[in-house]
Design the sequence.
């Protein structure tokens, strides 16, 4: 629970870093520049949107005792730790200061584990977890309390599955996957055929979901099982919170999918793709490698590799910007044309949609 | 866990179908055409977006042993099963090959079931399920592990409630409903009145949620309870994942609501409506029967029956398409007018929103 | 389970209200005007979108026995209860008629509570709840069945945490917070740095989440923990269902965030802000006090206090309306220019995006 303290010397030793200033300085917390207080270690990463001069000024007025920087700044009284990649250094030190609570190895006495399940070495199974028949769990994997693992699931080594996640039948996870709370892997896909009697008849989904190694899934996201075959997410791809991935969709490697994005069924998304927040992808769409889609893009058709798109339907991001700017001028253009052109009879007014708008908040 | 094998003859018998080719062929898996391998049964449904010629070619080069088709194709060496509706046939056969694990009847010893709860015949209650006071559960309903059913709930016959779903007080489900993992039925609606002291004071929600027969709810979707009265979803309506349905809203029969759609409170949605993915509906909106809203439509006012709409605010889909195409031309139009018309003084540039965009990914 | 009955006199006494008509009338349910039946108490709040004349007519034809109104209406036979704020009166009476089931005080025998946890007076801990090490829970707080509270969490007094919610390590809640089912507080933020070997390397998140007093969080919403420092939601702010709030974001007091809204990381949202349904906010954005964003606004940059915005990127709501109306006229404008102007060579047609649209439903 309590934070731990370290000398700058100790920390620099772990980072193989150079120290400028008093290496005996003791720090007990890592904090961002904005909120760093007395006794803190802070950092400046060149990727942050802030000029070097502003940072130096803030550091001079800060009560932090030490700072991690890429290159030492002049005229600072606080101790500086210089590393090639400050953010990486912070990542490697963070848990020294405030370790996340760890589950003890072994099976909690309240967990219900099928006798046919196979657990690797140093596996931790938390309170009230349910591990179904024929489940395989690899070495060092941590299953937090209140995780439900249906029958036939395979989970690799060194995975962490957080409380409230559910892993449905026959789903497979590679090694080192991180599944946040409330995730549903392998829910039945949204598949029906029209039926005179019932309206919509269910199509059974007997496929599964496969997450390759190092896939992360954010809180309350869902990945539906395939009808037949597999819904697959490739190695090192990272999925944010409240994302939906539909049945039979494939996602390549190292692809990032941000919050509230919805990918319909049977899509084929490439590797190194970035889908920003709130993107929607229609079903059966193919997106090539290295595509970047701006927030809220509505992707209704295939996108070739390496394109950067925005809008709905999507266009190249440059065109989208020009459209946005042009649209802002359109009301004025219509007014001018009405006054001095053959279009003068067209009416232009925003009043008629007032009623619609009034219901929006 | 393991898949089962069948002769084509056996399968055709179940389907009452004609066989062309070797009826003794043994198949052990159903797979889509793209991934069918040795020993597989595959299928071709005319609803798939692919020409008959392409399909025949793929089938000739496929290592599948048999195929389900609407009408037999010429010059195929694999065995063909001919049925009027191939997808329906696949649906009826799928679970023969890979049965979903079934929960045994009876109450798991770890479940907490109120003594006042009434359970029908052949009900299954999984590990750690909590069944509150006065709950009624109909015959053959399956309640998976880790489902919480609050007091006063009524669940019909032959329902399946998956792990992690929560059914709040007084909610009612008809027969044959399918509730995926993480669904919340009957959370308190988002209702406050403004209050000088507290800012926003809560309005207690004493109404409930009613799902009629054959309603399906996708993973991590939420249906809020009414403040007074009932939030209702009609017979055979199907709700996809991560959908929110607000307090006091009514949805008719056989309506489909796709993923990430949000329907605000007090709406009245008709029957046979389709709301595609990511649609938003403002509160108190009425949508008539047979309306179709394209993905991401923002429905801010009432929509008459049978309309097909898109956009935000919504317009008829044809107009939306024309708007989209016209907008693509707008930057060029402005440029031309600037060069050769009285509008020549207007500036047109996308640069000024660069900063905004840079924060989107 | 059953509803309770009261005389109008009793109810008016609790409200300190005037009665017009028969005060001995007995009512057993509160119902909205649309569905009020025999024996019901109904109400009319001037905030409802309906004229006084229409209401009076409906009341005359209603079978309700009594009505709560702001000012008594003439020529009504049913009993009237007159109060300054009818909706507030309904809120204060609602649970008399249909009390929500209450959890008994004490710890359910199946719950797993760490010996180092500190529980206040009259705390209720439901079945299968898990309370981690060093957790503090204030007086009268109710933790429903199947809630998981990780180590080091502090929860104030009189909170209600519904089944299926998860509160991660070191998260802090003030007094009187209401957490709906399936909420995840403190999931790891979506933070990676690029790494040659792994593609994306995780940045540990050692910060936390703080909810101040009277914060409500809707079903299946997620609030991510800060990387360092705190993700904070201010006093009396109310968050609807399926909302995502990113790591390190701050939200002020009394702010309302409606369903399906996504707020990225490191944002600074003011007090008394309203973000309507489906709004998206890019990372590092600052939104001033009293800003109102219409449904589906895509907020890509800072917004000054008191503005009312709509659209993506956002513009003042008046301009947005004019843009929408102008866009509807744009296809016609292009047609006219093509026919009678130097722009006559431009083609205008919606056909070419048909294919894209066809995949949307």
Sequence:
């Amino acid at each position: 629970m309590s934070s731990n303290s370290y000398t700058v010397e100790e920390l620099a030793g772990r980072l193989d870093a150079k120290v400028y200033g008093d290496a005996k300085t003791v720090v007990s917390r890592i904090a961002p520049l904005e909120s760093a207080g007395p006794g803190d270690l802070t950092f400046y990463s060149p990727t942050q949107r802030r000029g070097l001069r502003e940072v130096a000024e803030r550091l001079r007025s800060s009560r932090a005792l030490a700072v991690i920087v890429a290159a030492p700044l002049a005229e600072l009284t606080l101790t500086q730790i210089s590393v090639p990649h400050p953010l990486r250094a912070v990542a490697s030190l963070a848990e020294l200061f405030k370790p996340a609570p760890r589950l003890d190895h072994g099976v909690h006495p309240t967990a219900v584990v099928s006798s046919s399940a196979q657990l690797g070495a140093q596996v931790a199974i938390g309170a009230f977890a349910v591990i179904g028949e024929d489940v395989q769990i690899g070495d060092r994997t941590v299953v937090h309390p209140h995780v439900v693992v249906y029958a036939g699931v395979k989970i690799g080594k060194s995975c962490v599955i957080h409380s409230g996640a559910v892993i449905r039948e026959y789903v497979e996870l590679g090694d080192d996957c991180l599944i946040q709370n409330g995730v549903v892997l392998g829910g039945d896909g949204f598949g029906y055929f029209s039926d005179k009697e019932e309206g919509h008849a269910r199509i059974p989904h007997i496929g599964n979901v496969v997450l390759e190694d190092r896939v992360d899934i954010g809180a309350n996201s869902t990945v539906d099982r395939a009808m037949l075959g597999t819904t697959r997410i490739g190695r090192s791809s990272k999925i944010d919170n409240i994302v939906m991935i539909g049945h039979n969709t494939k996602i390549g490697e190292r692809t990032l999918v941000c919050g509230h994005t919805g990918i319909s069924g049977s899509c084929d998304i490439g590797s190194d793709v970035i889908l920003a927040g709130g993107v929607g992808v229609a079903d059966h769409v193919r997106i090539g490698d290295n595509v970047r889609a701006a927030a809220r893009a509505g992707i209704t058709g295939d996108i070739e590799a390496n394109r950067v798109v925005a809008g709905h339907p999507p266009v190249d991001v440059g065109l989208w910007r020009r459209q946005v700017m042009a649209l802002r001028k359109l009301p004025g253009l219509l007014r001018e044309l009405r006054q001095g052109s053959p279009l003068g009879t067209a009416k232009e007014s925003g009043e008629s949609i007032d009623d619609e708008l009034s219901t929006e908040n």
Summary: Chain A touches chain B through 85 residues (CB under 8 Å). The first strand of chain A starts at residue 6 and ends at 7.
